[in-house]
Amino acid sequence: MNNSASLKHIVIAGGGTAGWMAAATLGNIFSASDTQITLIESSQIGTIGVGEATIPPFIAVIESLGIDLVDFIQHTQSSFKWGIQFVDWHTRGQSYFHPFGTLGQSIDGHDFFQCWLKSQTSDHPLPLMAHSKEAALAEHGAFFKPHEAANTPLASAQFALHVDASLVVKYLKRFAMAKGVRHIDAKIAQVKTHPSGDIAALQLDNGQQIEGDFFIDCTGFGGLLIEQTLASGYHDWRMFLPCNKAVTVPTAVSQPLNPFTIATARDAGWTWKIPLQHRTGNGYVFADDFCDDQQALDCLLSSVEEAPLDEPRFIPFRTGVRKQPWKANCLALGLAQGFLEPLESTAIHLVSKSLALFVRMFPSAGNNDILRNEFNRRVQQDYEEIRDFLILHYCETQRDDTDFWRWCQHDMPIPDSLQHKLAFFRHAGGLIPGVETLFQPTSWYAVFNGMGVQPQGYNPTLDALDAERLNLSLQRGAQGIAALAAQQPSHADFLRTYCPAH
Ligand code: FAD
């Protein structure tokens, strides 16, 4: 076997969550090799500083770096998250829960969801979320002791974290630098290219010139390397998802400390509430075609429960993804790669998933076209999957109380890929999980159900299952989950006892 020459110097431009996640991942891989990693960031420019809700794969990312989860939680003032509560999305006054993990268990080889669908024809049907461990724990405001839960149904419960983004950056920076990553605080003044189109070097405002054979663009929305230099192009998806701005404000901790994110539909978008150990993150994501900045700010401030700890901040964004997230010898990550509104907390996940994919398709110092094309195809697929899932949260609304919601209900374009999913699900509750897709059936079931999308019937094979036995089995399962959840410590007590903030 004749391995091609390996990369000698990888330069990461930007030191936000994306930059330091890349530095931590690559620093960990190359700590004992002669491949050098350098990260350049400008403390004058700073980071975006939001990005507080994560999803379960984030836990695996932290642990795969060899980081102790409790230590991470203590240093990042994190809290736990079982899922997202969606308030007022279908109609005002209605809410539903999107939990992590899986729902129920199959019965006699029949898919759980189909069993549940059949049980809905009984006299006392149970709600879908009665079969979610995570939803039950969220409802009780509880977290669980993993060791004590080892032989119970709670053992497989899946959680994620709410984190302080700036503390995550600090933590990962310390970790990456301990692995040998070189750090330079300076502004990139110019990006120099070879005649081939590859990036050659970054010229810094302190006079240094940093050469490299591969570059990772983590410079945020501006995409200094991938767009301003390499003109990758952008798939702009505003026609599907009209929100294009956020206003954010942190407030003091509010009680109770919920182990879930709250996403509340508002007149022209939605607000988030994310509880951390030391503060609450709040923001209003809105469409400026339907609402001006002052209206958005008034809405946000009237929705928060505690005093603001800082000045509100407006952040404009453009929904979509770069046409070529990996172009020439440059890979874009984080906001430089693309952005989808944070309704399902997917941005940090997309950074880690892109990094994992990049490591699997790691380039050498030769022709990498085949890797690059496959990488770009997969990233585009990830963004389309999330885009479709986000659209589902809007397009099935029954709200018609504002122009924004009337537009969502009547005029929102639905991509063919989502129309197919909707039609397939409506037929007999069908869902076909894709290979390496992020949102597994539980997620789709939760949002379909929460948004009132009903299948016409259940799969005919369920006629073989005795209805009485089926209902009894579902009832017992749900009762077991509820009883266990009620025995667990409160989220706040758990954090105080096992992971007090440093
Ligand atoms: P940034 O944080 O913007 O970092 C850019 C870096 O590049 C900085 O270090 C900057 O100094 C540097 N830089 C730029 N130009 C130069 C230059 N010329 N020279 C030197 N350095 C330079 N994600 C989630 O997973 N969950 C959430 O709940 C969530 N909520 C969000 C809410 C909002 C409103 C927004 C906008 C985003 C949210 N995100 C969320 C996304 C998340 O914030 C980002 O994905 C994540 O922080 C990564 O940001 P970044 O590192 O790509 O960019």
TrEMBL record:
Q: Which domain of life is it from?
A: Bacteria
Entry-linked InterPro entries: FAD/NAD-bd_sf (IPR036188), Flavin-dep_Halogenase_NPB (IPR050816), Flavin_halogenase (IPR006905), Trp_halogen (IPR033856)
Pfam annotation, one family: Trp_halogenase
Kindly give the Gene3D superfamilies that the UniProt entry links to this protein.
Answer: FAD/NAD(P)-binding domain
Which SUPFAM superfamilies does its entry note? Answer: FAD/NAD(P)-binding domain
Protein name, UniProt field: Tryptophan 7-halogenase
Organism, by scientific name, is: Fluctibacter halophilus
